[in-house]
Structure formats: C-alpha cells, structure tokens
Amino acid sequence: MKIEHLVWLRNDLRVLDNPALYHASLQGNVAVLFTLTQAQWQKHNESDAKTGLRLGLMENLATKLAQLGIPVHFIVVDYFTELAEEISKLCKQLGVQGFWFNQELALDEANRDKSVQQALVKHNITCYPQMADLIVAQAVLSQQNTPFKVFTPFFKRWLSLLSQQSPTPLPAPTQQGNALSVKPIPKLANYTFRDDLWPADLTIAQQKLWQFCHHKERHYDKERDFPALPATSTLSPYLALGALGPRQCLEAIHHICGREDRAWQDSTWLKELAWRDFYRQLMHHFPNLNKGLPFKPETSALIWQDDDQSFQAWCQGNTGFPIVDAAMRQLNQTGWMHNRLRMITASFFCKLLFADWRKGEAYFMRQLIDGEFAANNGGWQWSASTGCDAAPYFRVFNPTRQSESYDKNGDFIRRFVPELAKLDSKSIHNPNSQQRKDCHYPTPIIDYKPARLAAIAAFDNLKERA
User: Fold this and answer.
1) Catalytic site residue 198?
2) Domain boundary pick from 232, 258, 285
C-alpha cells in the first residue's frame, strides 16, 4: 500500500478527536510516526512515570491503528535536533507527499517543528500543521489584540470564543485496508508507573472521563479542595499526553450539564481546563517563560535561600508539617498530587523556606506522571508571586490552617504519614513535642511566623528599590 501522508504524533496519543490524524486520513492513505527522544525528555525533567505511561499509550495506540490498517513507524534519537534529518530520510523512503502534526506551543517543541518543516520543504514535501491541542486552539487576545496577562478576562474571552465552536469531537479515521500486525515499540529503559491508577489504555481513559462527568463533575466545585475525598477527575496524566482530547472533555461537559439542565459555561471543571489553555498560550506569547525566567522581571532580584538540608526534607516529606509531608509522600509514591496540595507545598517551598521556585518546579516535573511544562511553571510562579496573575506576595499559606480547613479529620494525613495515624483529629495537624517524639516524627524545619515575615520583607525590599 502506497503511503501518501505521514502523521507525526507526540503529546496527542489518541485516535479520536485528533485533527492531524483525521484530516490527513481524508486526503489519502496515512501512516503514523512516533519519535522517541529519551535524552530530550530527561533534559526537560520529564519523570520516569510519565515516560512509562507515554510508552504504554504508544503501544496501545499502535494496536488500535493496526486494527484500522494504519502502519506505524518509529524513530529513536536522543534529542529534538536530530529529528529533521531522520524524518526527512523516512519521508523520502516512504514517498510521502504530505506531513501532518498538531502544533505544540512550548519553545523547544516549536523550534523542533520549525526545523523539521524547513527540512521537508527542501524535499518538496508539503507540511500541514494543525491547530495546537487546546480547547480553544486559536490565540485568545484582548480587544487591543494583545495577550491576556490575567486569567479572569482571559476566561471571559475564552468562553465567548468557545461558544462559537462545535463541542463535537472529530471521529476516528475510517478503516484503511486490512488490519495489520502490531509493530512493537522500540525497547528503552524499564520505566515504571502506577498502571493500577492510570492504565495505559485509551478506552479506559475515555471511560474514566465519562465516569467522572456522570458521578463527580456536579459536586466538583464543593469537593475538589479536600484531598481525602476522591472528588477530582485524576485525568491529568491522560490530558498531559493527549490520550484524551480537548473536545472529548468539552463534549462530556456539554452532555452532563444538558442532561441536568445546567449551563455548561458554569462548570468549575471547565474553568480548570481553561487554566491549562491559559498557561500554554502564555508560553507562546512570552518566550522568556520557557527559559527559566520569572514573568515579573523585577523578581529576578530576589535572593533565594539555598539550604540543601531543608530541600531534602521537603522532597522526602520530612518537614515536620504533616499536610506538607503527606502531600510530598503522595507525590513520591504515586507520581501525582492533589491540586490544593500542590499550592500548599509550593507556597511552603517558596515563601517559608524561601527557596528558588525553579528548584521546586524541576523536582515536581521529575516526579509527576502528569507533568506539563506550562501548567507546572504557571503553578510554581503563581505560588512564588513571580508569575502572571500570581498570588499577592503577602499571601503566605499557613500549612497548619490549610490542613485544618481541608483535611479536618486528618484522613489524608493518616493515609500518607502513617506514623501519625493514632493521633486525634486536632493534634494530627500540629503534634506537640512529646507526640512527635512518640511517633518518631520530626520537629518543624522552620518557624512559620518569622519565616512568613522574612518572605514579605524580601518582596517589600523589591518595591522600595523599584
């Protein structure tokens, strides 16, 4: 079978709702390309768990494509910079006329795609970049045609644009000849992940989406902040790798809100998905965010503390603050952390340890199965008060008050800090000295009040110098 079009899949590992795959299939016979860039993923601090899930999803997707008669090809190199030459060779070898992909907005990925396009044009191969994998794929701009720097007006404009587009996902490509034998994924290192929590299966990802929308989306607004409750979607690993597409999520929201006679625009979960679009678009409009620089340039003058002992205690979940330690242990054990806890642990890191947010950002990426550069960077800069639409610098989370508010009975703490399990629901948030000794639990590594005042003073000094 002659292959006329080659579709390059990256963080869009699905058959349904895949613009590049669907539109290419309308033009003629297609094949799919997977590129494995292990050293590049490591350079980007992508976790072993995410890589393991990525490879598992590739394998599952390769099986589904083979059933449709769509052949799969693999290119294995270390870095993005090697791809232009290797992709050109493969396209010439297959006699490809058209090359298709869904755009990515982060700087390294955009530069990679540009170099591949430039190489293919030299060989008279037409490239068909499709819109980026966002719910609202077009640029969301103000009336002055400038990017938004604050989420609320962005969201209002985003909703307006969203109401003008169809929520219906694109279908899968039609059958392309006989089913093929499945091509095995090239063997890389043995990357393990919690496949009991996130099976590398596109059908299961779809089922989890609909189960969440049917059973939990309605109560998401009221219950999402309580980490002991199974109230969040936990779909982020599938969204990060594109096993679920944006219009699939939108369709599910439309369906469930319509069935329950609610306005889909009011869905709190939809608003959370809008944050993902917001942070991704910021990466595109403000390239310095891709270079480890703060969104607010004046905060570059902050002198962060560099205490390796405190950093290690934070990483290992041994800070002496039970909610922080429970959260960090959840991250280390599962590769995932509840969103409220991400804010608590990042605020603790940046404002109370006064440690450089970039160090915490990198640690999260190395652990998270759902690590997305844009969202992770956005969350860390929000917590550090260096970012776009960030928390005011004088707002410093009190971890004990947060714990009492969002894990009132200590159920989440007991799950991940079992040495404290026998404490009563009041003491568990801040055990006294004797309780800590009896439970073999560390004393706090910082004193909250002076640490908070020191952080605020550091930002006040910036204002005075401005």
Assistant:
1) no
2) 285
